[in-house]
Design brief:
mainly beta, nine-stranded antiparallel sheet, five-stranded antiparallel sheet, Aldose_1-epimerase
Length: about 350
Amino acid sequence: MTTKQILATPALRGADQLFTLRNANDMRLTISERGAALVSWWAPDRYGKVADVLLGYRDAHGYADNSAYFGAVIGRWANRIAQGRFMLDGAPVQAAVNDRGNHLHGGDDGFHKARWTLSASGAGVSLRLSSPDGDGGFPGQLDVQVHYRLDDEGRLTIDFEAVSDAPTPVNLTAHPYFNLNGGSADVGDHMLQIDADFYLETDPGGIPVGVAAVGGTPFDFRQPAAIGPRLGWPDAQIRLAGGFDHCYCIQPHAMGRAGPLREVARVYDPGSGRRLQVSTTEPGLQFYSGNWLDGVQGRAGRPYARHDGFCLEAHAYPDQLNGQCASAVILRPGQVYRQTTVYRLSLQS
């Protein structure tokens, strides 16, 4: 392992501390203490030209607000909870509501805005956060650790751990937006493959209403297919979300529980030759095609447009707290929440 760590200040203007991981092939990954966010990931294309494959803000002020959740760790609850309400051990709980009457990504003041404690850790970097009882409406003090490691094969391994002093839901994820062409165009030409036979249909607020088979629909990415043409398919779910913003059931036999680490998705950009592989222990994979990016001010000196980036977020099922597998996402004292997701960047010949 030859990964190096470098404290970096010039990459992002502002007061937040940054840390850069660099592997033997000079691939560089920059992480901010604000939101434990992945800020930049510089990687070469097939011609050796290096570009940043992550979307992000031009300075620290953007990450302090981060309404788009660029690169951040999401918690305590990734994705949505219907009306922010759920039952916990027979008692009603009301979490923060911030998205069309529902809870989304920890609320307006979730983990994505917090300043985490950042430190070097072996071949990577660790970030810690203590979320007090009542934070976002959730019970119990939750202590969270996130570990980032970048190896010489281009694998970014993200390990999550959390403990609580009271029963509480925990559902964490990383929220990087990728554009494998480095921002020279939108992601319409990207070839996506997801190993899932089923996905969750949603209502207008993004709350799941049922499990549907992907076959015969624009959601069928069991074989590689370009993202762009699927956005124009005459499909009610695509129209409802303005594109893709749906959870795929990638561990169908796990009943909403974490399973073994396995590869579940691949994305290839024909223009640059860059390839992204996603592995995770989680039961769900949210594919988001950047439907609400239009007008978001990024670091490229121009606002982002719709579909300028995509997300593949590994986590529990949306609104699982109000489903049959609610017990699988409740962390109790004495237990340790663990999750691993791996993003691997490479070149495809």
